[in-house]
Every structure is written in C-alpha cells, then in structure tokens.
Design a protein that fits this description.
The protein has about 180 residues and is an all-alpha fold. The chain contains six helices and no strands.
Length: about 180
C-alpha cells in the first residue's frame, strides 16, 4: 500500500504537467492566428501549471525536480539552444516558491506572477538567442511581435483555464491527503 501511495503522489502532478507540456506544442501548431504575419505568439500552459502548483501545492522539492525534468524535455522538444529551459525553468520556479511565502493565493497574484515570469523567461531566452546568434530580431521587434502576442494569448488562456485547473489541482490535493 505504501508504494501505491508514494507513486500516486508523484504521478498526479507529473501527468498534469505532461498534458500541459504537450498542449503547448498542440496549440502552437494548431492556432495559425498566433503566427500570422510577423506575430509569433507562444503558448505557455506548462508555465501556467507550474505557477498554479507553486501557489496551491506544498511540494516545493518536487516542483524543482519537475521543473528540471520538464525544462530538459522542453529544450529537447521545442528549443534551438539546448540547456536554456533546463536552467531557467527551475530558477524561475525557485523564485516563485520563494515569493509565494509573502503573497496570498488569489487569481490576481497568480496572474501577475504568471505574466511577470512569462515575460522574464522569454526575455532571457531572447537575450541568450542574441548571444548565440540564433535570433535575428532587434529588441523592439521582439517586444512587438513576440512578447505582446504571447502575453495577450496567455492571459486569455490563463483566465479561461484558471477555475478548471484550480479545481483539478484542489482535487489532486484532496486525493494526496487521502493517501
């Protein structure tokens, strides 16, 4: 029984993060309007789930491990520069876990943190792309054609998915308490 309990506590959050990871790719490929003209909106559902887990779950060590694993997978699956998300995702999740101690769990706080981390992560990736010469944009074009479409799209998705994802996370927390 003990082995089943420990497995469930690990598998539940991992499955939610894995689904969010693949939703990022599916939305990127499936929603052509995100990439119309010069616009390059990037869905970040996995990051949204990390932010929500950070505020709702008391599993700091596991979140750091998950962020490293999914950062590594994100680099392999989506990125041109290997190691970027492997390093910056755990770094930003660690900062979220530190900051959550000072703020309450609310939609306004979580949305603010999500958008702040979203912009910061994309900016770090952009700067690293400039350093490694994999990006051909200047900073103004990056803001106009990548950050703004990304922020608006992810804000809408966050507000649409906040209640259902919160409900799922709280159900997962309740199930973890049972076991």
């Amino acid at each position: 029984m003990k082995r089943v309990v420990n497995t469930f506590k690990v598998i539940g959050p991992f499955v939610m993060l894995a689904v969010a990871f693949y939703l990022d790719g599916i939305l990127k490929l499936g929603l052509d309007f995100l990439n119309s003209g010069n616009n390059n909106g990037l869905p970040q559902i996995m990051l949204m789930v990390f932010v929500m887990f950070a505020f709702k779950f008391d599993m700091n060590r596991e979140l750091i491990v998950y962020s490293f694993v999914f950062g590594f997978l994100y680099d392999i699956y989506y990125m041109n520069i290997f190691g970027v998300y492997t390093v910056i995702l755990p770094l930003f999740v660690s900062l979220l876990l530190f900051a959550k101690e000072y703020f309450p769990d609310s939609i306004i706080i979580e949305t603010s943190y999500y958008l702040l981390v979203l912009v910061a992560m994309h900016t770090v990736v952009f700067v690293l792309g400039l350093i490694f010469k994999t990006v051909n944009l200047n900073f103004i074009d990056f803001l106009s054609f990548t950050i703004w479409p990304t922020v608006w799209f992810n804000l809408i998705i966050f507000l649409l998915l906040y209640v259902p994802l919160s409900w799922l996370i709280y159900k997962l927390i309740d199930l973890r308490r049972v076991f």
